Amino acid sequence: MTKTCIPILLMLLAFTLPVRAGFNDGILSITNLSRQNVLIEIDGREFPYCNNALVLRDFTPGYHQVKVYTEKIFPRKRITLFEKNVYVRPKYYVDLIINRFGRVLIDEQEITDNRFDEDGRENNRDEHHSEKPGPSTIIPRPITDNTFASFIETIRKENFDDSRMAIARSGIDQYFFTSAQAKQLISLLSFENSKLELAKYLYGRTTDPKNYFIVYSVFTFSKTKLELAEYIKNYR
Asked: 185 or 30: which carries more pLDDT confidence?
């Protein structure tokens, strides 16, 4: 599971100009999907305990120097994976994704509503909180094609359904998908039960749920299709 660094605000006060959050502030996050631990440095400040995910809210718009390293134990040296001035536009969520091969990709999405909660993740929970992701009241944009292609490739390189499922869930928690993209993700799994589990998990994160019927073709057994149909029928 992806972990998020909590005491972000205290850290930000040390190197961002505004003391209070501005209306046009953005969000910067770094997500590590690789198998190696990384060191993150932003504007000269290191975040040593954020190997899996770092989310910085109320982030001042403009250019920020971002460096991502990995450390070689013997001989001990630091290897740079990414070093670039990243531009955070006002009211935008900028996500740096480190894929399985250590390549860093950048994706961004405009913040058009309040669906991001305190740790920067998209918030779709109502007063009756459920573990399953739920649809937003405002239809969001799906994951970009480039990011989705990298996401698919990262999952495909895993050998077992359990590891593929874990990586898939980490991405599903952060992005929205079209029904066609959901079908591609589900098709990466080998076992019927795993496919059904992922299909249920993805349903609440699709931007076009009316087209979700295309997902049924990935299943072999009618019983599985009926179970998914019943889940969708009773989905809240």
From this structure: 185
